[in-house]
Amino acid sequence: MTPGAKNTTDTEDISWWWHSTDDFDFDTIGYAMPMVDGKKILVCGDCEFGPIGLRSPDAKEFWLAVERVGYADKPAPKGHKIVPRKAKKM
Q1: Where are the domains of the chain?
Q2: Running DSSP on this structure, what letter comes out for residue 9?
Q3: Distance CA 53, CA 45 (A)
Q4: How much is the average pLDDT of 68-85?
Q5: How far does Cα 24 stand from its chain's mean position?
Q6: What is this structure's pTM?
Q7: Is the peptide bond before 51 cis (omega within 30 degrees of 0)?
Q8: What is the SS3 assignment for 89?
Q9: Which keywords does the record carry (predicted)?
Q10: Which of 6, 20, 41, 69 supports an S-S bond with 51, CB 3.0-4.6 Å?
């Protein structure tokens, strides 16, 4: 990944990724037009900082670089029942 999405030869090694197959797992994620190795670049939907991750061409897989984003565990809204996800069969 290139820090700050600038045209440069500097790169950044990312060692830890969050992976998802559901784009609704993320809040305020945007997509930049340039593609890297056939994948769309993910950017912050609020400030357009990025790249923060990649999206597959078919929009079925998403990878976020843990080193480039923050995570805050928020309490569920009042009256909301938390239902754990079922493991997918392989």
Answers
A1: 3-68
A2: S
A3: 12
A4: 70
A5: 11
A6: 0.61
A7: yes
A8: coil
A9: Guanine-nucleotide releasing factor, Protein transport, Transport
A10: 41
